[in-house]
């Protein structure tokens, strides 16, 4: 197993920026406590307040997948907060070069 760094940007639906910020912020602390989570940070674009960017660092791809597919806080977001997302702008799965 090798470490995985993930960078994901989500765009809020117009008028839903505050709701999406709240919903996304709610997944940060539980995600940081998950097995294999080395870094889990949420950012907002200074020039585009409706664009939110996650920077995640996981001990393995398998642990990240478990988080994404089985984490109760992620499942809650999918059921109750994902409706405020207009689109996923990008998702980069990165391997460290040096």
Automatic annotation (TrEMBL):
SUPFAM superfamilies: Dimeric alpha+beta barrel (SSF54909). Transmembrane segments: none annotated. Gene3D superfamilies: 3.30.70.100. The keyword Transmembrane does not apply. Pfam families: ABM. The keyword Zinc-finger does not apply. It comes from the Bacteria. Keywords: Monooxygenase, Oxidoreductase. One of its GO terms (molecular function) is monooxygenase activity. Residues 4-93 form the ABM domain. InterPro entries: ABM_dom, AI-2_Isomerase_LsrG, Dimeric_a/b-barrel. This is Antibiotic biosynthesis monooxygenase. It comes from Bosea thiooxidans.
């Amino acid at each position: 197993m090798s470490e995985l760094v993930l960078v994901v940007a989500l765009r809020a639906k117009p008028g839903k920026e505050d709701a999406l910020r709240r919903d996304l912020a709610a997944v940060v602390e539980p995600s940081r406590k998950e097995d294999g989570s080395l870094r889990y940070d949420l950012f907002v674009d200074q020039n585009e307040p409706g664009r939110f960017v996650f920077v995640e660092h996981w001990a393995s791809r398998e642990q990240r997948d478990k988080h994404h597919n089985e984490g109760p806080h992620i499942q809650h977001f999918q059921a109750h907060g994902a409706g405020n997302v207009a689109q996923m702008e990008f998702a980069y799965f990165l391997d460290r070069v040096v």
